[in-house]
Write a structure and sequence with these properties.
With about 180 residues, this protein is mostly helical. It contains 9 helices and no strands. Helix 2 (about 25-35) packs across helix 5, helix 3 (about 40-55) crosses helix 5 (about 90-110) and helix 6 runs antiparallel to helix 7 (about 150-160). The N and C termini lie far apart (about 90 Å).
């Protein structure tokens, strides 16, 4: 008995104490109580509720919720499902993740859990297609050079062989290409 009392006292002093009755509170119950207190617009509330409904750990008690539960949920969002032909895009996953993170951070502040299991969980990277670079093959470079009008051939070659972006290549001036020797 004394050992248990010492452990509880230590937890209270260090701020790691969690009420044992929180074993009865699962994520879905916590979400319901926490989200009801939020001052969100109707569209924000709809997005947040969709986020909460997407979790695969709604039935899991907060005290037993682990990083693995969150990682499994994120993985599930990246895959096709009965409701969608392909996985969700990275920005959508990030939005859902953020709402769940906020709810669990509030559970930490309310001392229902010691630490947020969402903290430091990796999310899918968002690759912006409009800036993603694809490297042309030598054949594609040859075709581009042959198809380019004479006045643009040097520009196309500069982009292809110097690895410059369109804007960078457009800023190159002939006088800057000649090395300047100083003695």
């Amino acid at each position: 008995m004394q050992r248990w009392l010492d452990e509880v006292t230590t937890c209270i002093i260090t701020g790691a104490y969690v009420d044992p009755d929180t074993d009865k509170i699962n994520f879905a119950d916590w979400w319901s109580a926490w989200s009801a207190r939020q001052t969100w617009t109707s569209s924000t509330r709809a997005t947040a509720e969709l986020s909460a409904k997407s979790v695969t750990f709604g039935h899991v008690p907060l005290r037993t919720l682990r990083r693995a539960h969150v990682e499994e949920w994120i993985k599930a969002m990246t895959l096709p499902s009965a409701f969608r032909a392909q996985g969700l895009a990275a920005p959508t996953i990030r939005t859902r993740f953020n709402y769940v993170h906020m709810a669990l951070a509030a559970a930490v502040r309310d001392r229902l859990i010691v630490e947020n299991p969402v903290a430091r969980v990796s999310q899918p990277k968002h690759r912006r297609r409009h800036i993603a670079m694809t490297i042309p093959t030598p054949e594609q470079v040859s075709e581009a050079l042959n198809a380019a009008p004479d006045e643009l051939r040097a520009y196309v070659a500069l982009c292809a062989f110097a690895g410059l972006g369109l804007g960078e290549a457009a800023g190159v001036r002939p006088e800057t290409l000649t090395p300047r020797l100083t003695f």
